[in-house]
């Protein structure tokens, strides 16, 4: 069993205003938290991992196939693996949430 506590992991600013915190990673899935500041953007990208998440605060706009979808606190989402997608925070407060990746993504590119 692995337990990752807040006191052992520091958020990484993967890009301006986008803070990601890598959590526990198993053989088949991994988890991360995000905090995206107002006005911050995650540019379009794709990865082989299925990405399932929930927004815990604020509103996150996900962009898939050129379509903007607002995801609010309490909403959940899934992005299939290899699907190009982007995200941005158009609101006036941070967008926060939790995402699970499968297969596991224990050492994402943004950690380097």
Brief write-up:
The chain has strands spanning 12-15, 18-25, 30-36, 41-45, 50-57, 59-64, 67-72, 76-79, 85-88, 95-102. The protein has 112 residues and is mainly β. A six-stranded antiparallel β-sheet has the order 1-2-3-10-5-8, with no helix packed on it. It has a four-stranded antiparallel β-sheet with strand order 4-9-6-7, with no helix packed on it.
How many domain units?
A: 1
Number of helices: 0
CATH class value: Mainly Beta
H and E order: EEEEEEEEEE
Instruction: Report the count of strand segments.
Output: 10
Uncertain regions spanning at least 5 consecutive residues: none
Rg is 13 Å
Approximate shape: globular
How would you describe the overall organization of this protein?
The protein has a single domain, classed as Jelly Rolls (Sandwich). The mean pLDDT is 94. The protein contains no helices and ten strands.
Key structural traits:
112 residues; mainly beta; Jelly Rolls; six-stranded antiparallel β-sheet; four-stranded antiparallel β-sheet; 0% helix; globular
Topology:
Blueprint: E1 12-15, E2 18-25, E3 30-36, E4 41-45, E5 50-57, E6 59-64, E7 67-72, E8 76-79, E9 85-88, E10 95-102
Antiparallel strand pairs: 1-2, 2-3, 3-10, 4-9, 5-8, 5-10, 6-7, 6-9
């Amino acid at each position: 069993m692995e337990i990752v506590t807040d006191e052992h992991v520091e958020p990484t600013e993967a890009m301006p205003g986008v803070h990601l915190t890598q959590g526990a990673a198993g053989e088949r899935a991994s988890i991360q938290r995000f905090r995206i500041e107002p006005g911050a953007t995650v540019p379009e990208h794709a990865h082989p991992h299925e990405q399932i998440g929930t927004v815990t605060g604020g509103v996150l706009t996900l962009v898939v196939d050129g379509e903007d979808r607002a995801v609010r606190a309490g909403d959940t989402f899934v992005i299939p693996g290899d699907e190009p997608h982007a995200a941005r925070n158009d609101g006036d407060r941070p967008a926060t949430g939790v995402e699970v990746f499968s297969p596991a993504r224990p050492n994402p590119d943004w950690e380097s």
